[in-house]
Amino acid sequence: MGSKNKLKRFKENETFENVFQPTREELVTKTYQLKGKWRSEVFKNENPLVLELGCGKGEYTVGLAQRYPEKNFIGIDIKGARFWRGAKTALEDNIPNAAFIRTQIELIEYVFAENEVDEIWITFPDPQIKYKRTKHRMTNLKFLERYRKVLKPKGLLHLKTDSEFMHGYTLGLLHGAGHEVLYANHNVYKQEGSPAEVTEIQTFYENQYLEKDKPITYIRFQIN
Known about the structure:
Radius of gyration: 17 Å
Distance between the termini: 42 Å
CATH architecture: 3-Layer(aba) Sandwich
CATH superfamily: Vaccinia Virus protein VP39
Mean pLDDT: 94
Number of strands: 8
Helix content: 25-40%
Largest sheet: 8 strands, mixed
CATH topology: Rossmann fold
Low-confidence stretches: none
Number of helices: 10
CATH class: Alpha Beta
Protein backbone atom coordinates (compact mmCIF):
# COMPACT_ATOMS: atom_id res chain seq x y z
CA MET A 1 0.00 0.00 0.00
CA GLY A 2 1.42 3.39 -1.00
CA SER A 3 2.10 6.04 1.65
CA LYS A 4 -0.49 8.35 0.03
CA ASN A 5 -3.14 5.68 0.38
CA LYS A 6 -2.12 5.03 4.01
CA LEU A 7 -2.35 8.72 4.84
CA LYS A 8 -5.78 8.93 3.26
CA ARG A 9 -6.97 5.99 5.38
CA PHE A 10 -5.49 7.43 8.58
CA LYS A 11 -7.33 10.68 7.92
CA GLU A 12 -10.58 8.85 7.21
CA ASN A 13 -10.20 6.80 10.40
CA GLU A 14 -10.12 10.06 12.37
CA THR A 15 -13.61 10.88 11.07
CA PHE A 16 -15.12 7.44 11.75
CA GLU A 17 -17.34 7.33 14.83
CA ASN A 18 -16.58 3.62 15.29
CA VAL A 19 -12.77 4.06 15.48
CA PHE A 20 -10.89 4.92 18.69
CA GLN A 21 -7.18 5.81 18.69
CA PRO A 22 -5.88 6.50 22.21
CA THR A 23 -2.19 7.36 22.50
CA ARG A 24 0.07 5.13 24.58
CA GLU A 25 0.53 8.01 27.00
CA GLU A 26 -3.26 8.43 27.37
CA LEU A 27 -3.54 4.78 28.33
CA VAL A 28 -0.61 4.24 30.68
CA THR A 29 -0.37 7.57 32.54
CA LYS A 30 -4.02 7.99 33.47
CA THR A 31 -7.25 6.01 33.41
CA TYR A 32 -8.55 5.91 29.83
CA GLN A 33 -11.97 7.60 29.65
CA LEU A 34 -13.71 4.60 28.07
CA LYS A 35 -12.18 1.95 30.33
CA GLY A 36 -15.09 0.12 31.94
CA LYS A 37 -17.59 2.09 29.87
CA TRP A 38 -17.47 0.54 26.40
CA ARG A 39 -20.99 -0.87 26.64
CA SER A 40 -22.66 2.22 28.08
CA GLU A 41 -20.74 4.96 26.25
CA VAL A 42 -20.00 3.41 22.85
CA PHE A 43 -22.62 0.72 22.19
CA LYS A 44 -25.36 2.17 24.44
CA ASN A 45 -26.42 -1.27 25.66
CA GLU A 46 -25.44 -3.97 28.16
CA ASN A 47 -24.78 -6.73 25.60
CA PRO A 48 -21.75 -9.04 25.88
CA LEU A 49 -18.44 -7.53 24.73
CA VAL A 50 -16.22 -9.54 22.37
CA LEU A 51 -12.72 -8.56 21.19
CA GLU A 52 -10.79 -9.60 18.09
CA LEU A 53 -7.07 -9.15 18.74
CA GLY A 54 -4.81 -8.43 15.76
CA CYS A 55 -7.91 -7.90 13.63
CA GLY A 56 -6.08 -7.01 10.37
CA LYS A 57 -8.61 -5.83 7.82
CA GLY A 58 -11.44 -6.38 10.29
CA GLU A 59 -13.33 -9.06 8.34
CA TYR A 60 -13.82 -11.24 11.41
CA THR A 61 -14.99 -8.40 13.63
CA VAL A 62 -17.54 -7.34 11.00
CA GLY A 63 -18.56 -10.93 10.18
CA LEU A 64 -19.17 -11.80 13.84
CA ALA A 65 -21.05 -8.54 14.42
CA GLN A 66 -23.40 -9.36 11.54
CA ARG A 67 -23.86 -12.91 12.77
CA TYR A 68 -24.50 -11.94 16.41
CA PRO A 69 -26.38 -8.61 16.58
CA GLU A 70 -27.03 -9.31 20.28
CA LYS A 71 -23.30 -8.90 21.08
CA ASN A 72 -20.82 -5.99 20.78
CA PHE A 73 -17.56 -6.52 18.86
CA ILE A 74 -14.30 -4.56 18.93
CA GLY A 75 -11.39 -5.24 16.58
CA ILE A 76 -7.97 -4.22 17.88
CA ASP A 77 -4.83 -3.68 15.79
CA ILE A 78 -1.91 -1.25 15.77
CA LYS A 79 -2.21 -0.91 11.98
CA GLY A 80 -5.07 1.52 11.41
CA ALA A 81 -4.64 1.56 7.63
CA ARG A 82 -5.55 -2.14 7.66
CA PHE A 83 -8.69 -2.06 9.78
CA TRP A 84 -9.88 1.03 7.88
CA ARG A 85 -11.63 -1.42 5.54
CA GLY A 86 -13.59 -3.13 8.32
CA ALA A 87 -14.51 0.17 9.99
CA LYS A 88 -15.72 1.63 6.69
CA THR A 89 -17.76 -1.48 5.88
CA ALA A 90 -19.39 -1.41 9.34
CA LEU A 91 -20.44 2.21 8.78
CA GLU A 92 -21.59 1.71 5.18
CA ASP A 93 -23.60 -1.42 6.04
CA ASN A 94 -25.00 0.10 9.24
CA ILE A 95 -23.50 -2.45 11.64
CA PRO A 96 -23.76 -0.58 14.97
CA ASN A 97 -22.25 -3.38 17.08
CA ALA A 98 -18.77 -3.25 15.47
CA ALA A 99 -16.00 -0.85 16.52
CA PHE A 100 -12.20 -0.67 16.21
CA ILE A 101 -9.34 0.44 18.44
CA ARG A 102 -5.87 1.30 17.22
CA THR A 103 -3.45 0.23 19.94
CA GLN A 104 -0.96 -2.48 20.87
CA ILE A 105 -2.38 -5.74 22.22
CA GLU A 106 -0.03 -5.63 25.24
CA LEU A 107 -1.89 -2.51 26.45
CA ILE A 108 -5.25 -4.31 26.61
CA GLU A 109 -5.53 -4.06 30.41
CA TYR A 110 -5.27 -0.26 30.13
CA VAL A 111 -8.12 -0.14 27.60
CA PHE A 112 -10.60 -2.43 29.37
CA ALA A 113 -11.58 -2.83 33.02
CA GLU A 114 -11.44 -6.04 35.01
CA ASN A 115 -14.24 -8.45 33.98
CA GLU A 116 -15.39 -6.08 31.20
CA VAL A 117 -14.84 -8.54 28.34
CA ASP A 118 -16.89 -11.69 27.67
CA GLU A 119 -14.92 -13.30 24.84
CA ILE A 120 -11.66 -12.90 22.93
CA TRP A 121 -10.88 -14.02 19.38
CA ILE A 122 -7.26 -14.32 18.21
CA THR A 123 -7.31 -14.76 14.44
CA PHE A 124 -4.22 -15.69 12.41
CA PRO A 125 -1.59 -14.17 14.71
CA ASP A 126 2.07 -14.15 13.71
CA PRO A 127 3.37 -17.42 15.25
CA GLN A 128 6.72 -15.73 16.11
CA ILE A 129 8.55 -19.02 15.57
CA LYS A 130 12.07 -17.75 16.33
CA TYR A 131 12.99 -18.26 19.98
CA LYS A 132 13.90 -14.62 20.61
CA ARG A 133 10.42 -13.62 19.38
CA THR A 134 8.48 -15.83 21.82
CA LYS A 135 7.71 -12.83 24.06
CA HIS A 136 5.52 -11.50 21.20
CA ARG A 137 3.60 -14.77 20.76
CA MET A 138 -0.03 -13.89 21.48
CA THR A 139 -0.84 -17.03 23.46
CA ASN A 140 2.22 -17.06 25.71
CA LEU A 141 1.70 -17.03 29.49
CA LYS A 142 2.23 -13.28 29.78
CA PHE A 143 -0.43 -12.51 27.18
CA LEU A 144 -2.83 -15.05 28.73
CA GLU A 145 -2.45 -13.24 32.05
CA ARG A 146 -3.33 -9.92 30.35
CA TYR A 147 -6.45 -11.51 28.87
CA ARG A 148 -7.42 -13.00 32.24
CA LYS A 149 -7.35 -9.51 33.79
CA VAL A 150 -10.01 -8.13 31.44
CA LEU A 151 -12.10 -11.27 30.89
CA LYS A 152 -15.06 -12.27 33.00
CA PRO A 153 -14.55 -15.52 34.96
CA LYS A 154 -15.01 -18.44 32.53
CA GLY A 155 -14.81 -16.00 29.59
CA LEU A 156 -14.19 -17.76 26.28
CA LEU A 157 -11.06 -17.45 24.12
CA HIS A 158 -10.80 -18.59 20.51
CA LEU A 159 -7.62 -19.16 18.50
CA LYS A 160 -7.93 -19.62 14.75
CA THR A 161 -4.68 -20.02 12.86
CA ASP A 162 -3.04 -21.50 9.76
CA SER A 163 0.08 -22.24 11.83
CA GLU A 164 0.26 -25.84 13.04
CA PHE A 165 3.19 -24.70 15.19
CA MET A 166 1.02 -22.06 16.92
CA HIS A 167 -1.81 -24.57 17.37
CA GLY A 168 0.47 -27.18 18.95
CA TYR A 169 2.35 -24.64 21.06
CA THR A 170 -0.89 -23.19 22.45
CA LEU A 171 -2.45 -26.59 23.20
CA GLY A 172 0.70 -27.71 25.03
CA LEU A 173 0.89 -24.49 27.00
CA LEU A 174 -2.80 -24.60 27.97
CA HIS A 175 -2.60 -28.22 29.15
CA GLY A 176 0.67 -27.54 31.00
CA ALA A 177 -0.76 -24.52 32.82
CA GLY A 178 -3.98 -26.32 33.77
CA HIS A 179 -6.27 -24.18 31.61
CA GLU A 180 -9.41 -25.68 30.11
CA VAL A 181 -9.43 -26.68 26.44
CA LEU A 182 -13.10 -26.90 25.45
CA TYR A 183 -12.64 -27.76 21.77
CA ALA A 184 -9.69 -28.29 19.44
CA ASN A 185 -9.63 -29.05 15.72
CA HIS A 186 -6.49 -29.22 13.58
CA ASN A 187 -8.32 -28.91 10.23
CA VAL A 188 -11.69 -27.17 10.50
CA TYR A 189 -12.59 -27.46 6.81
CA LYS A 190 -11.89 -31.19 6.56
CA GLN A 191 -13.41 -32.43 9.83
CA GLU A 192 -17.13 -32.63 10.46
CA GLY A 193 -18.71 -30.72 13.32
CA SER A 194 -16.64 -27.55 13.06
CA PRO A 195 -18.45 -24.51 14.55
CA ALA A 196 -20.20 -22.47 11.84
CA GLU A 197 -18.68 -19.19 13.05
CA VAL A 198 -15.24 -20.71 12.40
CA THR A 199 -15.85 -21.88 8.83
CA GLU A 200 -18.41 -19.39 7.55
CA ILE A 201 -16.41 -16.22 8.31
CA GLN A 202 -13.15 -16.01 6.39
CA THR A 203 -10.40 -13.41 6.27
CA PHE A 204 -8.58 -12.17 3.17
CA TYR A 205 -5.46 -14.16 4.09
CA GLU A 206 -7.46 -17.24 5.07
CA ASN A 207 -8.83 -17.45 1.53
CA GLN A 208 -5.26 -17.44 0.24
CA TYR A 209 -4.29 -20.24 2.65
CA LEU A 210 -7.31 -22.29 1.57
CA GLU A 211 -6.37 -21.91 -2.10
CA LYS A 212 -3.03 -23.52 -1.19
CA ASP A 213 -4.91 -26.26 0.72
CA LYS A 214 -3.32 -25.18 4.00
CA PRO A 215 -5.09 -26.62 7.10
CA ILE A 216 -6.84 -24.05 9.31
CA THR A 217 -6.85 -24.91 13.01
CA TYR A 218 -9.06 -23.77 15.89
CA ILE A 219 -9.04 -23.95 19.70
CA ARG A 220 -11.74 -22.77 22.11
CA PHE A 221 -10.52 -22.46 25.70
CA GLN A 222 -10.86 -20.81 29.12
CA ILE A 223 -8.18 -19.44 31.43
CA ASN A 224 -8.44 -20.78 34.97
